[in-house]
Amino acid sequence: MTETTTKTTTKTSSLDRLAIPLIIVGALLTTTAFVLAFTLAPLVMGAEVDTPALIGGKMVANKLLLSQKIFYFHMPVAVTSFVALLFTAIYGVLFLAKRERRYDLNAKVATEVALVFILMTMVSGELWTRYEWGVWWVWEPRLTTYFILMLLIIGYFILRGAIDDAERRATYASVFGIIAFIDVPICFLITRMVPSSVHPVIFRTDSGLPPPMLIPLLIALFGMFCIAFGLYRTRLREQRLRERLTALKESLED
Amino acid sequence: MAANPSQATRAEAPSTGRPSTLAQYRTLLAKDLRQEFRTREMLTSMGIYALLVLVVFGAALAQSARGFDILQVSGGLIWALIVFTSLLGLNRSFSHEKEEGSLEGILLVPLDRSVIFLSKATSNLLFLAVVEIITLPLFYFFFLTGETPSSTFWMTVGPLAVGTIGITGIGTLLATITMNTRGKDVLLAVLFIPLTYPLLYACTAATTVAVLGGDIGGAYVPALALAAGYDVVMLLVSWLLYDYVVSA
Q1: Which of A165, B97, B161, B180 has the fewest Cβ atoms within 10 angstroms?
Q2: ipTM for the predicted complex
Q3: What is the 3-state secondary structure (H, E, C) of A197-227?
Q4: CB distance A144–B233 less than 8 Å?
Q5: Taking the domains of chain B in order of start, what are their residue ranges?
Q6: Looking at residue B233, what is its pLDDT?
Q7: Looking at domain A13-253, which of 3.30.1120, 1.20.120, 1.20.58, 1.10.10 is its CATH number?
Q8: Full-model pTM
């Protein structure tokens, strides 16, 4: 028992040492990507609407000029939140299969990271909506499904907070994490099912983006992944240390 | 529907004189129905609540202008009514089981846990369906008698059936989760409404098309297919995960 615990702590510490450098690398990469977005990427290409469309009572034509630059932040952050939620679901399945507490902790921390990125996506999207459409909110399919996703993740934490028994909390949270993940593919695919005029389909084989736009986007995406993973490892380490501290405190009291 | 796979695995197991899965399912369902028949607790509370929601709708719409077309919003109102009423019923559906410790008794029986899910979901479905059969004519009576809905009005049955099945399936799983938590009534709503949103959206779309008589092939059928697909995914996942939830 003691052997396995020491083993896990040494194994995690090597990954944990990477956490802070990864956050820094991610910050540098995303900054580079945003600079490139203004220098390398052309003004408006891939994100055009096919025909002028009426959204929120306003005509939106092919003039998504400078404000389109938020795309290089908005889209990588959103994709990162999806990936983090994928890990929530995977760790949920692992917990239900193996009944080990650490998977529940992993799932919880992954969901926390996901919530941070979901909030960043919502804020950046809102800024764009307000600037470009002159309204704060529109019940547009992608916006709505993503908003629902945010509510589900907030519900996940409310659920965790409402259960005292650790084993039961872990089980219920795992189950809910798996069910909530069903909304992710819906949100991802909704622009393919219900054509949305502002969210272009990025992932496709006939390449929607020319290289000068694709390069900053991919750098930003990779940078966001680095930041998310760094945050995840840091938070996981903090949680583990906290658990050890409580265990130590309890043993000292005895 | 989803009973077939479990039935198949049961049939392969060596016969030990245990009742079949179908018999277990029937017994559990009969228990819920008998209890309801004796107390009439669920149906009265859900029915009265639905009536009160209609009264609230009446107050909310009382000041609308004379030319206001209620047909445009009636699909949405019907689904708001169903969601709120089902929340009340789902919250209650496990209260007896919990208070009188009967769930522990059921869990002691060597039976497939998904049978519990199916029987509970079926009883919830039946109760909600009965309440809908009573309240939707009342909705028509209160709000739509002065209007002329399209000839496709009968097609609202489709989204109503698909939506009710999905709501009770997801709701039964979530009610089992929230049964053991603090502030369970609020928590059920917090988890249930976002999770059923896609279903709600698709069903409202299909209902509205049916009421207004829009493009059946281009709008009604895709919306209904979307709702049915969501039903299938959600019911399968709930059915698979129910074992973990009810045993925790």
Answers
A1: A165
A2: 0.86
A3: CCCCCCCCCCCCCCHHHHHHHHHHHHHHHHH
A4: no
A5: 21-61+68-247
A6: 94
A7: 1.20.120
A8: 0.85
